[in-house]
Each structure stands twice: as structure tokens, then as C-alpha cells.
Design brief:
Largest sheet: 6 strands, mixed
CATH topology of the largest domain: Aminoglycoside 3'-phosphotransferase, Chain: A, domain 2
Structural class: alpha+beta
CATH architecture of the largest domain: Alpha-Beta Complex
Distance between the termini: 66 Å
Strand content: 15-25%
Order of helices and strands: EHEEEHEEEHHEHHHHEEEEEHHHHHH
Radius of gyration: 22 Å
Shape: globular
Helix content: 40-55%
Number of strands: 13
CATH class of the largest domain: Alpha Beta
């Protein structure tokens, strides 16, 4: 059997060969599992570029069998044994809820390296949703439908046996990150007087966060949470928007059911929308802060009942013209908006059901906005986040999440 890596693990040839040997051995263990039902002639690994420094190596993994002219497609991840075992256990929880398809794992204790493999049987001709969203040849409807399909079971699995925590405790891992989002907001809040609009916004955001953290009576009924559901971890069949797979389950836990939904919204608005705008206008392209503020106002004021895209289009018409009076910026905003409609449609059902179970909370809309506020603060520390846009979004949410 042949194992191919389209990747150089180390500049030093000897170290590269050593890395290939260890990973080939793990791939052969996986092939041995497959061989119990079918022969394997070749395994090919192609690297997947990822954001951040997770310490893991992610690959597309194609399995070839004799006499068949097409591979079976998977996602494979190499990382240390401890994290591999933890992710596998978490993936089994997701599989129990049918959020995850077949998953296998193998450990090489001597090399402290593990392999976890996710089958992509449902999204056969798979693409990351990130690539789909940024591909201007793909219709907006396809993007929106893919999100509807990918999110249809998200936030729908309560677990009464998991411990209940306050909102502050539940979102702690999102906010208290190594990227130090709170520290960045505090630095803005202390900025000199000629930065007053930014420092004032940061001060109000931090005050709203303190108020949320003080709500000891607001206890979360835990639901199964993917934990890292952004556009790279949603795989879509390029020919069928309704065939999707979730991958990368190492953040799976039990917590607030809106977490995955708001993370997808926030990463679309503050990471992918800026990238899509730059594809239209070039590296220097951006929305004006007036356009960002107007967009956020529509989203905050209407929550689960977002108006038809034509209403947004009319309301923002003058703000979406480029320097030559054209409407180049309209397409990225409308694509994002249609995707957010899909996210919030899914969230409406999830959170109305949630509020019906827990009672005594501030309502489904407040639950969603609070979760969005907390997760967006967490993203504020990432360099991939368009921070001025995120600051505008957070500032607009203050009035939605505060009881003062």
C-alpha cells in the first residue's frame, strides 16, 4: 500500500523523513481497520490551511481501493496523543447526537502522535463552507441553503445530567483566551481623550459584560455544543448545498445552545465579510463605519425576524457605493445577510424551545444577543478579526443585553 503526503514536515530532510515515517505508520493502522472489509491501494494526504496555532496538522485524506477510479474522502488530523484521545471522546458524543459521521483514531505512544479521521460520506464532493462563501461564482442561495442544512441539528440536544453553570462560567473559555480580548478592550477604554469615541464604546461594552457576569441567577441548561463551529469546520458538497458535514470536534462540550450559532454569525461578519469585500475592491477595500453601524442596527433591531434583503438594500443604498458611485459593496453585504437569515432562522427555533424548557429567562431574543455578545468579545482578540467592525457590533448589542 502506498501512502503519499503532499507536504514537507521539516526543512531538514532527515527530520522530514522521520515525521513521514511516524505518520505513515499511523496511516497504515487506519488502512488495516479498513482492510477488514475492503482492500486499500493508496492513501493520499493533502494539507488544509488553518487559522491560528492549534498545534495540530489537518489534511484532506483520500482512500483509494483497487478497481475503483475515485477515492473515498475524509478529513484527517495529526496531533499529540492526549488531544487525539480527548477529541475522539468528544466526537463520540457528537456522533451519538448524529452531528458527526464515522470517526476513527489511532495512537503512537512512543512518538506521542495520534491520528483522528472523519468520514465525509454525506458531503462527497466536499468544500469548506469558507471557500463556498468566498467564491463569487456560487449563488447566495446556495450559501444560505448550506448553512440551513449544516445547522439543522445544532443546539437541539439538551443534557439534564451535565452540570449547570452561570452565563459567565459557561462562556469563560471563549472570553478568557490567550489572545486576551478583555485586555485589548481595556486598553481602548483607557485611551487618551482624542480617542474618545473608541474608548467610550469599549467602556460601555466592558460595563455590559460586568453586568452579565454578575447575573448569578441566570443559569444555563446545558446542550451539546460543537464549540468551534466556524466556516472551516462546515463541509459542503459542492454540487448539493443540502449535503453537509461538521468536522473538528475537539471543543465539544455541554453549554448554552446558541454558542455554535452565534460563533458562525460572528465569524461571517468579522472575518469572512471583510475578506469578501477585499475580493471585490482589492486589498485596500473596506466598508465604511457608517455602513457597518447601519448593518448592525438592522440585525440587532430585528433579531429573529430579519426583513427581506430588499429592505436592507434600500436602507443601505447610499452607504454601499464605491468611490466611483457604483454599488460594488452591495453583493458582499447581501450574501452575508442572506446567510445570517439562515443562522437566525435556525436560532429562533432552538432558543424558543430552550426558553420553554428553562423558564424565567429574559426571552429567546435576549438569550441570542447575550450569547452573540459574549462570543464576539472572545473573537476580539484574534488578529483575523476586523476589530473596528466587531467593536461597532458589540457597541450596538449593549442596549440589547443590558438591563440598566
Amino acid at each position: 500500500m502506498q501512502v503519499d503526503f503532499g507536504y514537507r514536515f521539516d526543512r531538514d530532510l532527515a527530520l522530514h523523513k522521520q515525521a513521514v515515517a511516524v505518520r505513515t505508520r499511523l496511516a497504515e493502522f487506519y488502512a488495516g481497520e479498513i482492510r477488514s472489509s475492503q482492500a486499500v491501494s493508496r492513501i493520499e494526504f493533502y494539507p488544509v490551511s488553518r487559522v491560528g496555532k492549534s498545534g495540530s496538522e489537518v489534511f484532506y485524506c483520500d482512500i483509494w481501493v483497487p478497481g475503483v477510479g475515485f477515492p473515498r474522502r475524509h478529513i484527517a488530523k495529526f496531533q499529540d496523543c492526549k488531544r487525539t484521545a480527548e477529541e475522539y471522546r468528544a466526537a463520540l458524543d457528537a456522533r451519538h447526537a448524529q452531528l458527526c459521521s464515522e470517526v476513527s483514531h489511532f495512537l503512537d505512544e512512543d512518538a506521542d502522535l495520534g491520528l483522528i479521521v472523519y468520514d465525509l460520506a454525506r458531503a462527497r464532493n466536499h468544500r469548506e463552507f469558507r471557500g463556498v462563501f468566498l467564491d463569487t461564482d456560487v449563488p447566495d442561495e446556495f450559501c444560505a441553503n448550506a448553512l440551513s442544512a449544516g445547522l439543522k441539528d445544532v443546539g437541539r440536544f439538551p443534557n439534564d445530567q451535565a452540570p449547570r453553570r452561570t452565563v459567565h462560567e459557561d462562556f469563560k473559555d471563549y472570553i478568557e483566551r490567550r489572545t486576551n480580548p478583555i485586555g485589548k478592550l481595556q486598553a481602548l477604554a483607557k485611551a487618551r481623550v482624542d480617542w474618545h469615541p473608541l474608548s467610550s464604546a469599549a467602556t460601555e461594552i466592558l460595563a455590559a459584560l460586568s453586568e452579565i457576569n454578575a447575573r448569578a441567577d441566570h443559569v444555563v441548561l446545558p446542550h451539546l455544543v460543537h464549540g468551534d463551529l466556524h466556516a472551516r469546520n462546515l463541509m459542503v458538497d459542492a454540487e448539493n448545498a443540502h449535503s453537509t458535514e461538521l468536522i473538528d470536534f475537539d471543543w465539544v462540550h455541554y453549554g448554552h445552545p446558541a454558542k455554535d450559532l452565534v460563533l458562525m454569525e460572528a465569524t461571517l461578519k468579522y472575518m469572512l465579510l471583510p475578506e469578501l469585500v477585499q475580493k471585490r475592491l482589492g486589498k485596500q477595500g473596506s466598508l465604511s463605519m457608517e455602513a457597518v453601524a447601519e448593518f448592525e442596527d438592522v440585525l440587532a433591531a430585528n433579531c429573529f425576524d430579519l426583513p427581506d434583503p430588499s429592505v436592507l438594500q434600500s436602507r443601505m443604498a447610499d452607504l454601499l457605493k464605491d468611490g466611483n458611485g457604483g454599488t460594488t459593496l452591495e453583493a458582499p453585504i447581501l450574501r452575508t445577510y442572506r446567510c445570517l437569515v439562515s443562522i437566525r432562522t435556525a436560532a429562533k427555533k432552538v432558543l424558543h424551545d430552550y426558553c420553554g424548557r428553562v423558564g424565567g429567562t429574559a426571552g429567546a431574543e435576549r438569550e441570542y444577543m447575550t450569547a452573540l455578545f459574549m462570543v464576539t468579545i472572545g473573537l476580539f482578540g484574534f488578529q483575523e478579526t476586523e476589530r473596528f467592525w466587531a467593536l461597532a457590533g458589540l457597541h450596538r448589542l449593549v442596549s440589547e443585553v443590558s438591563t440598566q
